[in-house]
Amino acid sequence: MSPFAKRKSGSIAALGESALLEKIRRWLGPVSPPAPFGIGDDCAVLPAARGQQLITVDPVIYGRHFDDAVPPAGVGAKLLKRNLSDLAAMGARPTTAVLALTLDPRVSLRWLEQFYRGLAAEARRWRVRIVGGDLTQAENFIGAYLTLLGETAGPRAVTRTGARAGDAIYVTGELGGSRLGRHWRFRPRLAEGAWLARRPTVRAMMDVSDGLAKDLRALTPPGAVSAIDTAAIPVSAAARRLATRTKKSPLHHALCDGEDYELVFALAAQANHTAFEHAWQRAFPRTRLTRIGQFATTTAKIPNILRLDDFAGYEHFR
Amino acid sequence: MSPFAKRKSGSIAALGESALLEKIRRWLGPVSPPAPFGIGDDCAVLPAARGQQLITVDPVIYGRHFDDAVPPAGVGAKLLKRNLSDLAAMGARPTTAVLALTLDPRVSLRWLEQFYRGLAAEARRWRVRIVGGDLTQAENFIGAYLTLLGETAGPRAVTRTGARAGDAIYVTGELGGSRLGRHWRFRPRLAEGAWLARRPTVRAMMDVSDGLAKDLRALTPPGAVSAIDTAAIPVSAAARRLATRTKKSPLHHALCDGEDYELVFALAAQANHTAFEHAWQRAFPRTRLTRIGQFATTTAKIPNILRLDDFAGYEHFR
User: Fold this and answer.
1) DSSP state, B216?
2) C-beta atoms of B89 and A159 within 8 A
3) Cβ neighbours, 10 Å, residue B48
4) Which helix (H) or strand (E) holds B123?
């Protein structure tokens, strides 16, 4: 669905700002508490945090993170889910969000309503309150910027640093081909992230958003490399489908495509890996977990491995 | 200064993302703490808040909030100051910010460096830590979205609601003609806002960002109107200068121009107004404070007043 109205009468410009703000509050419904705890004052007053607080920000932009093929409710949901995935990656749960929206005046009311309803439904699912925002006009641009606050669900936030040589590398789900639909249909791994954060043997974690080959570098301890068993990489069916079109290998898509929104983490070498994997299966029987390799100081003695550090990942601004 | 590089070699696209992120961290300097308390992980971990926490978000967008006439350091400073003004309006002080930046790949490194240095200088001035962000590419668009967290400086946050009929209306500084330069050169009224929040007779407050005529409606109690002594409105020299060009009256500019970033507030009818004004002068000898009228249930008996509620303010999306 195109975000643009066919006729001026169906555009947000025809409605004007005050009436539009009224509508937005109705579309958000109970997800948006009354001022000063929600939209309507200069700032929103936040409820007291229980755990340690975390913050992250990610946008969705027309032509980059979504196009006419993504239903507007899916765009709204994706905006929140991208940020939820960042909280999941640290083992935290969401609390509060603010949304800055920049819209071409020709954006249709119908598109915008579904965008907000999709966002609100996703916010209800994860108990996120949307407490503030900004609405600005710009020509030929549609962008939504969500800042999400969260708090640790357990005793700690799991960071990207902390992995050591010898630690096993695990990844959730399957990788690659996200652009065929998963990029907006995925479910953020919040439960999985919180579960992993409660286990001290999980030493470091992040979400896979720019492709495993690139992202894994941030998890790799100094002086080590990531030694990956390429045969173990959980290549998605979408990656295989996409490869028939692009003439690249399914493995290439699994390693280099962005927007997987899976979790990759390091499990301490001395952990009982079998017990860990069994506990995972009991907790998340429908979510695949794959040991894909290990961090190593030298790969000389490991046969059949790929040094992911040699891989070029997705570089923005190229 | 134009944000666009004359040659590709001077653009951010020539540098690439990783090198650009390195530079951004250097430009921000000590304003940006190390991960996980700053940029570099999936989320930033926040320090514990002392008072009640507040949140606000505002962007600056090329062609709307700034143009080539505003130096890039001024654009960076304005981005933070717009948000600081929202905290000032509730009597709070700033703590932490995250920044989502969307840039055309042709943006020049020189422009971006000065933008960040201006932002960092302003952040140092107000002790704001910039702890996270996002960098995304888009064609023909330059927008920076800052989400600012703060905390109450005293026992309360002053909201927009709480004024009663009979309360006096005060405004800080001078109004109108902001587009001649003040829109990026202003100093946010954080000290003034915190001072006002400590006085229980200050019943409601907001900042003037869309023009007094429009903004004052949000402060007006239900069933009342704002009765303004037009002769008392502090019309800025810029509003008068602008009026000679636009053929509108200086008063029109003072009431309807946006981006004043002054504070407007309601002082309880029973307060000692003279003592209040004297205390203000001792605290802020160089900041003008003007009593411009009162909230009234009927304006029948008040001579020479303007009912600001009859005024049309600036409507976005028209």
Assistant:
1) H
2) no
3) 7
4) helix B109-125
What ipTM score was computed for the predicted complex, to two decimals?
0.94
Q: Cite the residue boundaries of each domain of chain A with CATH code 3.90.650.10.
A: 168-310
For residue A31, what are the contacts with CB-CB under 8 A and spacing of at least 6?
A120, A123, A124, A128, A129, A130
Mutation to test the A interface, candidates B145, B208, B264, most A Cβ within 10 Å? B145
The answer to whether B206 faces chain A, any CB pair under 8 Å, is: yes
**Mean predicted confidence (pLDDT) in B76-99:** 98
Residue B185's CB: how many other CB atoms inside 10 A?
13
Q: Which fold has domain A168-310?
A: Phosphoribosyl-aminoimidazole Synthetase; Chain A, domain 2 (3.90.650)
pLDDT confidence of B318, banded at 50, 70, 90? Answer: very low
Q: Is B22 exposed, middle or buried (0-12, 13-18, 19+ CB in 10 A)?
A: exposed
Provide the chain A residues 80-99 that lie in CB contact (below 8 A) with chain B: 85-87, 89-90, 92, 96, 98-99
**Cross-chain CB nearest to A102 (options B12, B13, B61):** B61
Cα–Cα dist A175/A215, whole Å = 13
Q: Write out chain A residues lying below 8 Å of B137, CB-based.
A: 64, 316-317
Q: With cut-offs at 50, 70 and 90, classify the pLDDT of residue A249.
A: very high
pLDDT in tens, A207-241: 999 999 999 999 999 999 999 998 999 999 999 99
CATH topology (fold) of B8-152: 60s Ribosomal Protein L30; Chain: A; (3.30.1330)
Q: Three-state DSSP class for B107?
A: strand
Distances (CA, A) of B275 to A11, B234, B282: 52, 21, 11
Q: Would you state the torsion angle of the CA atoms of residues B267, B273, B277, B279, taken in this order, to the nearest 10 degrees?
A: -90
How far apart, in whole angstroms, are the C-alpha atoms of residue B37 and residue B45?
5
Q: Angle at Cα B298 formed by Cα B292 and Cα B302, nearest 5°? A: 50
| Helix or strand (DSSP H, E) at B267 | strand B262-267
Q: What is the mean pLDDT of chain B?
A: 94
Determine the residue of chain B that is closest to A89 in CA distance.
B42
Q: Are the C-beta atoms of residues A99 and A130 closer than 8 Å to each other? A: yes
Window B:119-148, CB contacts with A under 8 Å? 131-141, 143, 145, 147
A contacts of B103 (beta carbons < 8 Å) = 317
Residue B74 C-alpha, separation from nearest chain A C-alpha, in angstroms: 20
At B242-276, the pLDDT tens digits run 999 999 999 999 999 999 999 999 999 999 999 99
What are the start and end residues of each CATH 3.30.1330.10 domain in chain A? 8-152
Q: A102 at the B interface (CB within 8 A)?
A: yes
Provide the angle, in degrees to the nearest 10, between the axes of the packed helices A109-125 and A72-88.
30
Task: Give the torsion sign (CA, A77, A80, A86, A88).
Answer: negative
Q: How far apart (Å, rounded) are the C-alpha atoms in residues B216 and B204?
A: 11
pLDDT in tens, B180-238: 999 999 999 999 999 999 999 999 999 999 999 999 999 999 999 999 998 999 999 99
B184, B92 in Cβ contact below 8 A?
no
Give B110-132 pLDDT, tens digit per residue. Answer: 999 999 999 999 999 999 999 99
